[in-house]
Amino acid sequence: MRQRILQLRKRIKEEKPLIHCITNPISIHDCANVILAVGARPIMAEHPAEVADITASAGALMLNLGNITDARIESMKRSMRTAMENKIPVLLDLVGVACSDLRLDLARELLRIGHPAVLKGNMSELLAVSGLPSHAIGIDAGVEDALTEENIDGVSEVLKAFSRNNQAIVLATGKQDFVTDGERVVLVQNGSAALSGITGTGCMVGALTAAFLPGCEDNIAKEMTDSIEAGVWSGVEMELNGRSGNYLAAAVLGTALMGIAGEEAEKISRGPGSFQVNLLDEIYGVSDRQLLDLLKIEIY
């Protein structure tokens, strides 16, 4: 997993893929900047008349339901269809689906159009889309839905089934982030309380993860196969390879990078203003060595 993460970072910096984002205006500036910070190129086009052309030329598509308009709804549907037709990986961020029937209906329609590579949301949002009771407070997860030692086994089974049913990696954000491909679970335990003090950090996690999805395509899979044949990979790392394993690694990398950057930014910040600036600098500047040393994950 750790070497897979480093390969993804390196490839994105080298190839600078275009990442098409249809997202909310609250965090559009920050999402664009974090994509740039990891070496990819953002385009935030959302007019229905042009999104199909732009999606077709992109390496990945991010759809974020955080602020819905009629135009954005139509654009998301068109881009989703184009991405499916062209085998372009999609990250669908389920912002607010637990508090709005409009967003929930849109999310379900997008899932009928095709299968995203990654389905992201907080625990309340993922429960809502799964058709289970949830306790959201606006766009925030309810305390009753939080992942705990007592409920982790039950939650794991629900989210693994949701992952298999939708043929997608499921990324549940929270105090500890939960990532599954339907069989394996990775808990990412990096993060800082300061991240909740500024708006848009959840959206930025989605943007970061989307930025790494183009690094998961077939030639990477071939590189992985060659490495396995050469005896380079250990048992756990071999188990996490293959196309779904690559997308799993992209979700872990996007999530962990935000958490580690938050931890490092908090150390040198006076408040939310300086933290926001320092966060972007840390996303850009964290070294591979730091990433490996500070990464806190549990795989089971």
TrEMBL record:
Pathway(s) annotated for this protein in UniProt: Cofactor biosynthesis; thiamine diphosphate biosynthesis; 4-methyl-5-(2-phosphoethyl)-thiazole from 5-(2-hydroxyethyl)-4-methylthiazole: step 1/1
UniProt enzyme class: transferase
Residues annotated to bind ATP: K120, T173
Swiss-Prot/TrEMBL catalytic activity: 5-(2-hydroxyethyl)-4-methylthiazole + ATP = 4-methyl-5-(2-phosphooxyethyl)-thiazole + ADP + H(+)
Entry binding sites for substrate: M44, G200
Entry-linked CDD domains: THZ_kinase
Keywords recorded for this protein, A-Z: ATP-binding, Kinase, Magnesium, Metal-binding, Nucleotide-binding, Thiamine biosynthesis, Transferase
This enzyme's EC code(s): 2.7.1.50
Pfam families reported in the protein's UniProt record: HK
Gene3D superfamilies: 3.40.1190.20
Cofactors demanded by this protein: Mg(2+)
GO molecular function: ATP binding; hydroxyethylthiazole kinase activity; magnesium ion binding
GO annotation, biological process: thiamine biosynthetic process; thiamine diphosphate biosynthetic process
SUPFAM superfamilies per record: Ribokinase-like
Recorded family membership: Belongs to the Thz kinase family.
Role of this protein: Catalyzes the phosphorylation of the hydroxyl group of 4-methyl-5-beta-hydroxyethylthiazole (THZ).
Protein's name in the database: Hydroxyethylthiazole kinase
Organism phylogeny: Bacteria, Bacillati, Bacillota, Clostridia, Lachnospirales
Encoding gene, per UniProt annotation: thiM
